Amino acid sequence: MVTVSTSAFYGRANQQMGSLRARAEAMQEQIGTGKRLSRSSDDPAAASRLRSLDRRERLSKVDQGNSDRATTDLKLADNAVSSMADIVIRAKELTLQARTTVMSDAGQKAIATEITALRSELLSLANARDAAGHALFGGEAAGDPYVETAGVVSYGGVGTAPQTDLGDGQSVQRSMTGPDILSFGGTDLFEVLGTLAAGLASGGATATGAAADALGLLDAGLEKVTTAQTVIGTRQAWVETIDDRRTVTTELITDERINVGGADLAGTITRLKELTTVLEASQASFVRLSGISLFNQLN
Amino acid sequence: MASDLLSIARSGARVARGALEVTAQNIANAATNGYVRRNVIIEEVSATGGLLKAGDISLSGARIGGIHRNADAFRQTEVRRTAGEAARGGAELQGLENIESAIEQSRVYDLTVEFEASLLALSADPTDPSLRASTMAAAGNMASGFGIAATSLTAVGEGLRFDAGAALDETNVITTELARVNIRMARAGDDSSDRATLLDQRDSLLEKLAGRADISTSFNSSGMAEVRVGGATGPVLVSGGTAGTLAATAQADGTLDFTLDGAAVTLAGGAIGGKGQALEALAIRRDALDIAAGAIIATVNAAQAGGAALDGSTGAALFSGSGASTIALAFTAGSGLATAPAGSPAGSTLAGNLTAMRSAFSGNGHAQALSDLIFAASTDVAGKRVTSEALTSIASAAQIALDQQSGVDLDQEAANLVRFQQAFQASGRAMQVAADLFDTILGIR
Known about the structure:
The structure holds two protein chains of two kinds. By secondary structure, chain A is mainly alpha-helical. Chain A folds into two domains: about 1-35 and about 265-295; about 60-255, CATH 1.20.1330.10. Chain A is about 70% helix and about 5% strand. Chain A has helices at about 5-35, 45-100, 105-125, 180, 190-200, 205-260, 265-290, 295; strands spanning about 145-150, 150-155, 165, 170-175, 185, 185-190. In chain A, β1 (about 145-150) and β2 (about 150-155) form a beta hairpin. In chain A, α3 (about 105-125) runs antiparallel to α5 (about 190-200). The longest helix of chain A has about 60 residues, at about 205-260. The mean pLDDT of chain A is about 90. By secondary structure, chain B is α+β, with helices and mostly antiparallel strands. Chain B has two domains: about 5-70 and about 405-440, no CATH class; about 95-405, no CATH class. Chain B is about 60% helix and about 15% strand. Chain B has nine helices and 13 strands. In chain B, β8 (about 255-260) and β9 (about 265) form a beta hairpin. The longest helix of chain B is centred in the middle third of the chain and has 59 residues, at about 130-185. The model of chain B has no long low-confidence stretch (mean pLDDT about 90). The interface between A and B is large, with 45 and 57 residues.
């Protein structure tokens, strides 16, 4: 004969309802946090994957920060270089005026003064600073790369323009060195403008001769500056390309994170509903069964 | 010997009354832990006819032959075995969960990734004092993360050893008590109610014992238990009236060695065994954490030594210490970070050495090593959780099976109450009939 002892009945009911309750609470936690895993041991492999995704996301965020810095520096360099181009173009206009023999000496001198002003403007542009306060066109040098001593401007920069890692093994130089922009054919724009200003200041045939000499050199200098502008523009485009790629990768990481570690809300809620129905039913049947006792029937 | 109707009826009433008392006892103990339902064994009392009196009726009614304790030895053994397994699994799982939490919640992995990220951020402008300061802060946080993980693991170990010690003390109390029950058992009469109570005590003590250590039990004819620890051939823990004393000593790596009366003994089951196994897992994870911390110290310090600090001097070691509990920042000024290649002048914006440090850090897979450590700890937990759940459900199934057979069913007791009450009333009726018969004889005129 199989007897159902009273304590066995209560023990079993307790165990069944307890396990239903525990499962319902685990689901409630999933819905509440939106995460399928509350600790690594819930699914060790998925948790390990999530950790490596977190790491990639964190490093990619820093890459984005570095990339933004590089973009800022490249924009600053772009602005500086296009101002340099404007200066060279203005200098060329003035030189064309100065070349004509009808120009008076006073006029030549006035042009010489303006050329000198343009030259010092060019010098301050060449010593521009990047977002962090370092020399924009000085390579790794700490101070001003171009220094003027006794009317001669010399380049004191070191090495190449600094590089920024953009992640995934890609990097970009976030500026150019001064000589890459301003030096050509054994001379540089400071020397050309200096010689030109000195020549024009002398007046007469020396002035027109100097203007004629300078014209060709200014053309070559302008070409060098605009080439530099193109290079900087290409680098900006490269940074943008990498940024786009990073955005796509970040989206993929987010997607994968949701797939691996996110709670399936619809499924979980449905299962929770099912579970609560079962729990309510077993509670109701427990109350009914526990109410039945032979003692109630005996008088 | 002739029958006596009145005394037959009296014996019947006495038996019914005894049965009612046992039923009432069953009802009273319906919810008592370890109580096994009792039955009265009712025997007929009669004599065989004597010489030349073969035709005589010689009946003397009934008597209570004994109190039967409705226990099934096999199911009880199963309950002890499965409860011991479940207790071991539960204790081990709890210990492993604490280990997992200690490592995971110290956030040592996130802090290490944060340090790696700060090195990457610093590479954008190696001379920026605020980036240097944030790298130093990240390095300090990572060191504290290791410290927290190490301290938490130590605390987990202390907790496990304390629990194991407490369980050992309880075990020693239980075995002493069991030896005492054994002695009393030898004196109790067969099938007496006293004996049934002692058997209940013995079984509940054995159940408690099985929950704490892996025991194997045998009983002699008088019901005295002989308990061996660690399997059927293990050393004797309780025999007759003597009980051995279990003790534990902590080893250098935090694991426990157990002794029984001074001789080494293996405890693989029960809560104590589970705690011991968790302590072994703890020692392994602790070593791995120390190795991970040591590797980071070695990589970063080697990279520092290969570069120049902001003032142009050779980089000094960034971390002091050798393991997770001792790792600490050796200096706090951000200018000490050797970002530039060796031999660079002061204030160099070159990031050559920083790049070398970063690639060594990711190339040596320090973050991955920590992730693997957490993975190993959490796989342990996930695996043991499945085992523990299975063991728990097996144990509760065995317990319910035993309860079903040995527990009190109130409906059945209610029916018995009515049955024995009727038997009592019927015996009373028989007495009445005897009196009537006697009156009839007296009334003959």
